[in-house]
Each structure stands twice: as C-alpha cells, then as structure tokens.
TrEMBL record, chains A, B:
Annotated coiled-coil segments of the chain: none
Record localization: Cytoplasm
Official protein name in the record: Nucleoside deaminase
Organism field: Mucilaginibacter arboris
Cofactor: Zn(2+)
SUPFAM superfamilies assigned: Cytidine deaminase-like
Functional pathway: Pyrimidine metabolism
Domain CMP/dCMP-type deaminase: 1-116
Transmembrane segment boundaries: none
GO MF term set: diaminohydroxyphosphoribosylaminopyrimidine deaminase activity; zinc ion binding
Length: 145, 145
C-alpha cells in the first residue's frame, strides 16, 4: 500500500517547486487516495486553497457516507478553516505530518470525536522551516498573521 | 450606501437561478464590497465553495490587516468550514440573514470574540425553504448529512 503521508509530502514538495507554500494533503477512502492537493495561494491567487481544501476539492462532490469512511493526511497541523471543513464533513481521522511549525485546531477536532495522529515527521518539518526562512511574509499571509 | 445583506441575497438568488444552492455572501471593507460570492457546489462541482468561501475567494489574496477591518455578510448561519475561515482570518464581525434553516457555529464565533448579528430576514429564510423543499438531497450533501 502507498505510504499516504509520503503522498501528502510529495504534494507539498510539488507545491514548493512551483514557488508555492509547501503543504500537501491526501484524502483516503478505504485504503485508496481519492483526492490529492497542495496549497495554491501563490499558484491560483487563492485565499482558501490550503492543502487540505485542495485535496477535498479535487476529490469532488461526495456523499456524506463517503467522508465518514475517510482519513485525511496532511503535512501540517490543520488551521481553523481546514479543521472546520473536517468537522463539516464528519471525517473521522486525521493524520498530521508535524505540528511544531504550526499548531492547528487539534484540540477542537479531538473534542468533537475526531481521531488525530501526529507523526512528528522530520521531512515535513524541514520543508516548512526552509520555506518560512525564505518567505516569512507569505507564510504569515497564509495563516492570517 | 448599498444594503449589504440585500447584496448577499442577490448573490443567493443568482445562485438559485443557476440551479444552485441559494446562499450568498459579501465581504465588506470600510463600507465597500470587496468580494461577492454564492454557493457553487452545483455550478462548479465544488465541495468547498460555500457562499462565504466564494466571496472570500473572489476578494483575492489580502493581508491580515484588511480582514481585521472587514464585515462578512451571509444569507445563512455559517457552517463549521466557513466559521473556521472567519476565525483563520480574524474577521471581527459577521451579519447573518437567518439561522432558522440551519444553525451554524455562532457560539464558537462569539466565544472567540467575533461579533455576530442575526437579522432574522424573511426573504433569506423563504428562499432556503423553497430550495430545500425542491432539492432536499442537494441540501443534505452541502451540509454533510
């Protein structure tokens, strides 16, 4: 089986190669990736296409029953927007590459019954640190700072 | 000055005329609309373009300082995704057409210091009721039910 966090990281790396913010995500349903995405702020001038949102958008319109059998992999702890989207669709499990760079709404997710696993992945962390060192203003824009 | 809730309603009505889900939104900065949008689930096959998200996306990339001077008008109480986005960007005030059809995360928003005004607007309510009567499955898909 494909390593899903590696697939999310590959999305992040692809975004970085495009000059974008290196955060990637994949939506997995019953052991299969049904949506892949990465942050598109730079590439599409988007205010809402974080990696997780892009993966969900690329998965297309799905019935609620599908989301409830999904796992969402993301290279970075999900912000309030992406966490709210996880709650809207009732995605029961989120696997996070790292949360040292940014601590998202993990507690909110857990309080609503979402299983949250943090992998403390060095590759995810190092890519974000390299990006933030290069472009701190772009990172701040992405998280509303 | 333009009536901003009427502008959000006009977006909702435009979406309905397109065969879509009739929820509209406008983002207002210092008394001027800088983003207009409506739900695009049907029109774009989108899982994330709720009315509020579409208005924010159409406003384009903005620095955090601008969002902090904005008001977001929406015809319907904002779901967890849209509420999370309001929190991500620190939008301080949300004006809601109605919350009888759907009660969103108003308490979460208030708990984080967002001013939330509910207008109990009959036109917003009646449009949603008409839509849900026609297409209940589409409405359920939009709110993850």
């Amino acid at each position: 089986m494909e390593n899903f966090l590696e697939a999310a990281y590959a999305e992040a790396a692809a975004g970085y190669a495009e000059g974008g913010i290196p955060i990637g995500s994949v939506l997995v349903h019953r052991g299969k990736i049904i949506g892949r995405g990465h942050n598109r702020r730079v590439q599409k001038g988007s205010a809402i296409l974080h990696g997780e949102m892009d993966a969900l958008e690329n998965a297309g319109r799905l019935p609620a029953a599908v989301y409830r059998e999904c796992e969402l992999y993301t290279t970075l702890s999900p912000c309030p927007m992406c966490s709210g989207t996880i709650l809207l669709y009732g995605i029961p499990k989120v696997i996070i590459g790292e949360n040292k760079t940014f601590m998202g709404e993990e507690e909110l997710l857990r309080s609503k019954g979402v299983q949250v696993n943090v992998m403390d992945d060095a590759a995810c962390y190092n890519l974000m640190q390299q990006f933030i060192k290069d472009k701190p203003e772009l990172w701040n824009e992405d998280i509303g700072v």
